[in-house]
Amino acid sequence: MLDRFCGVAFACLLLACMGFSTKPDAGKGTLKIIFEPMFGARPLVLEKQMYHSANGDSLYIELLRFYISSIQLQGKNGAFNETSSYHLIDAEESASMNVVLKNVPAARYKTLIMNVGTDSLANVSGALGGDLDPTQGMYWAWNSGYINVKIEGRSNSCNTLHHGFEFHIGGYLPPNQTVRNVVLPLNQLKIKENGVTELHIKVDLAKFFNRIQLSKTNQMMIPGKQAAKMANCFVNVFSI
Questions:
Q1: Can you give the pTM of this predicted structure?
Q2: Cα 86 to the chain's mean position, in Å?
């Protein structure tokens, strides 16, 4: 009789422990960050849509990829830091434009901080997996480093083959490193316990192309001073 009672008690205890282990972390929620590529006020359409820059260039964008890493949230009563995580945003892959952060402390946040690009650790670690896999097309095998931003397209302003432009922005060695820090103010973003909160970040390429003139600048394929300058141009495309 005692053995039977002990067996039942143990089974109940085991079920209680299993239920506890699968329960979401108390006081935490999920943040879904949605990146929205734009050109001015219009959603970005690859290849088929013509856009016009403030410099008078008419252009088509055929490819847009960039890395986001080290996402942080800061608030008066809470903080969140994502470490050793890299997200490849690809305008051709809609799923890639959704970055989901789990176990974010439930609180109100005033600031989002993130890196555009990959840090030196990722670059010196050799070819990695996931979004950092070289098959993603964002790795310079000859230079043993990652391309932080890749933008390709065409414009009649370009005196190049097929009027194409290519901007492959990368490089991690000082003084020409191209990873950039972005700080975006939030309107008291609230993360609800056990809930999902959405945050939309616009990626306005007009702010990039308004800073360059395609007749003069239409190729960037190696690290260096010019790549660092172009990284400064790209970092301004983000807004809440």
A1: 0.86
A2: 7
DSSP H or E segment with residue 70: strand 58-74
Structure-token pair, residue 240 = 């809440």
168-to-79, 189, 221 alpha-carbon distances in Å? 34, 34, 5
- The mean pLDDT of 26-32, rounded to a whole number, is 90
Q: Are 106 and 191 in contact (CB under 8 A)?
A: yes
Q: Which residues of 133-171 are buried (b: 16+ CB within 10 A; e: fewer)?
A: eeebebbbeeeebbbbbbbbbbbebbeeeebebbbbbbb
Q: Which residue matches tokens 């190049």?
A: 160
Q: Specify the residue for token string 């006020």.
A: 41
Angstrom distance (rounded) from CA 207 to CA 83: 29
180 bridge partner residues: 116
Distance CA 166, CA 133 (A): 21
Q: Express each pLDDT in 133-182 by its tens digit.
A: 989 999 998 777 899 999 999 999 999 989 999 999 999 999 999 999 99
Helix (H) or strand (E) holding 238: strand 238-239
pLDDT digits (tens, 9 = 90+) for 94-115: 999 999 999 999 999 999 999 9
Residue 180: both structure tokens together: 């950039």
Length of the chain: 240
Burial of 100 (0-12, 13-18, 19+ CB in 10 A): exposed
Q: Residue 223: CA atoms inside 13 Å, Cβ hemisphere, count?
A: 20
